[in-house]
Amino acid sequence: MSSNHDIPAVIKHISCYNTYYIKYFPGESMANSDIDSKIKELQKIIDDSDNIVFFGGAGVSTESGIPDFRSTDGLYNQEWKYPPETIISHSFFYSNTKEFYRFYRAKLLPEGFEPNAAHYKLAEMEKAGKLKAIVTQNIDGLHQKAGSKEVYEIHGSTLRNFCQKCHRFYDDKFIAESANSPDQIPHCTECGGIVKPDVVLYEEGLDNDLIDKTVKAISEADTLIIGGTSLVVYPAAGFVRYFRGRYLVLLNKSETQMDDAANLVIHEPIGQVLSKIKV
Questions:
Q1: 68-109+157-199 falls under which CATH superfamily?
Q2: Which of 155, 167, 187, 267 is catalytic?
Q3: Which of 218, 221, 249, 268 has the smallest number of CB atoms closer than 10 Å to its CB?
């Protein structure tokens, strides 16, 4: 996938000729009436759409209590012996497995977290036939827990783990319990091999089948809703450039590089916004 950060000309063209070209930027005073007006516009877009794809990031799960990476309180701003980008890399996993799992169990296993209003509303939209697919950068499994079926986990899932030797499957509880093992590393109960999470680490590529499904879904959508992502992680963020539909919607607490191309931008918590949508 290309890492070109330029906004595609086709999306700029689409946004200039649509009805719902309404944006809000941080720094503006956003009264309740303004928020309500923008949510009404979002409702109109959803009512007018039959093939919606949702592209989401860490901000979708922060309202469930799971920390994101790049905000002020995110994982990248917390103190660790090594930077998080280093710890959750392919090479670090194999060279310093114990330290990898110390961080992984502490920060990336979604134990005790539940879906929030955003997860449930997206599941409701799918059940109603409006939403055709969710493309998520998250690895917590909360979309499926909320009831969504067509979920493309492009960065994998902490709920799936496999032995590197015999490929035996293990769940997330097995990984959590490995903290009590002698070396604090999860080993296969059959062959003794090291168990690795089915997540895409730094230095690893995305699954080709998921790439194809994601590109197909986004390119065929009439509406793309991007939520809870800063759109700075590539190649994942590059998928949005395949959108050729009518309405591009951005729901994120902070600005993104795509704000100027969107038909509607709302800088409010995504769960609070989607909870007001009627399907």
A1: SIR2/SIRT2 'Small Domain' (3.30.1600.10)
A2: 155
A3: 268
